[in-house]
Design goal:
alpha/beta, four-stranded mixed sheet, 11 helices, disordered N terminus
Length: 402
């Protein structure tokens, strides 16, 4: 039997242990609260760093991409500036994708042609699409008939047309910000007549125009070209056509078949060889095919050398071989070759009369159009000298309707 003193000792120990346990519990609670607060602070700081990390990764992804090539992984540097945040502008908006606002870019031709060759598999459009006509000017410098073209475009909706100008590198078209030609120059390269570089410039124009998904028809023009009908007539004629307008014919002379090279066999035979004017008009599907082509373009680049001229033979041969049923086999640009020689007749001020312009507009012949016949064969004409501008402006409203 324990004594009372022993029981008192036991009670004291119990009280001491209880006090100690409660002190430990309070300590653990305080420690838990401290750890919890520190964890919250660390979490907030980490979240900020994670955002910055992913933002940096996004910039690195777009600024220096690693892609697979036949030879292995390669780094591709994209020169366009990266916008870290798109608070003020939706960087992935349909508007920016469908119709680039700025024609300036640093793409090389192979990059540009690849980008232009992209074709949506889905046939429906997620936006209201109004077909546009792309007017593509291949020029060595100034456009002497700019006032006439400005008059042609005056009052027309920008949703119905777009303009592209390929000039010599370093040349800048001097127009006001209200002009239809304002900021419509594309990045260009040097062009030498009679070489493949001339057709490269034409493909460059096509590729830049294809970046706008609303462009449906593509007309190649020069600085010496003029319109001989008003805009509504031209727009309706082209957008309602079921065919493209590329002149393509078999020329048995030394200026035609005589330029053929047997080194193009077996892909191109003599029976495939065609000649025609470089001043074409194309539908979108044919334009995509041309900027996508490597096989036939490479053959022409290697084997169509002076006195063979790629701009006279590549497109007529290519279209005839692959898209013959989609081509009207004629040009909508009037050119006078009646004088012979390597260049067509040039028209100056003294040639410009009402009768002459009317003759180009309707000379009594009939031309194929949508499996029928039409009296309107030509929408444009060349080759006009700068002195022809003033008399053309005097006649444009009365004769050409603008």
């Amino acid at each position: 039997m324990r004594s009372r003193g022993s029981r008192d000792d036991m009670n004291c120990k119990y009280v001491s242990i209880s006090v100690k346990d409660s002190s430990i519990g309070l300590f653990k609670l305080i420690l838990f609260l401290i750890i919890f607060v520190v964890g919250v602070v660390i979490g907030l700081l980490s979240n900020s760093h994670v955002d910055r990390f992913f933002q940096l990764q996004t910039q690195q992804f777009y600024g220096n991409q690693t892609i697979w090539h036949e030879s292995g992984y390669i780094n591709v540097t994209v020169s366009c500036p990266v916008i870290p945040k798109c608070d003020k502008e939706d960087c992935l908006s349909m508007g920016n994708f469908l119709a680039p606002k700025n024609l300036s870019h640093r793409m090389m031709d192979n990059e540009l042609f690849w980008r232009a060759s992209l074709v949506p598999s889905k046939t429906e459009y997620p936006y209201v699409r109004k077909p546009k006509v792309a007017f593509m000017f291949l020029t060595r410098g100034p456009l002497p008939f700019l006032p006439l073209w400005e008059r042609f475009f005056t009052g027309q909706s920008r949703e119905m047309y777009s303009i592209y100008v390929h000039a010599v590198p370093g040349f800048e078209l001097d127009v006001t910000n209200t002009s239809a030609f304002y900021r419509r120059q594309i990045p260009s390269q040097k062009v030498k007549w009679g070489t493949v570089s001339l057709f490269d410039a034409e493909r460059r124009l096509l590729a830049n125009a294809l970046l706008d998904f609303s462009n449906e028809r593509f007309i190649l023009l020069s600085e010496s070209c003029i319109p001989v009908h008003n805009f509504p007539t031209v727009y309706k004629y082209l957008t309602e056509s079921q065919h493209s307008f590329v002149q393509s014919y078999d020329d048995p002379s030394r200026y035609g078949r005589g330029r053929y090279s047997r080194q193009m066999l077996p892909d191109i035979h003599l029976r495939d060889w065609r000649k025609g004017s470089q001043w074409f008009e194309l539908s979108r599907s044919l334009a995509v095919g041309i900027v996508s082509d490597t096989k036939y373009y490479t053959l022409f680049k290697k084997h169509c050398l002076p006195a063979c001229y790629p701009d006279e033979h590549y497109l007529p041969t290519y279209i005839q071989k692959l898209y013959g049923s989609l081509n009207s086999n004629r040009s909508v640009t009037y050119v006078d070759w009646s004088k012979g020689g390597p260049h067509p007749a040039a028209f100056t001020a003294e040639n410009i009369t009402e009768g002459f312009i009317q003759y180009i507009r309707n000379n009594g012949t009939l031309c194929p159009y949508n499996f029928d016949q039409t009296r309107i064969c030509y929408l444009f004409a060349r080759k006009f000298g700068p002195s022809a501008l003033e008399p053309l402006l005097n006649l444009s409203l009365k004769v050409m309707g603008f």
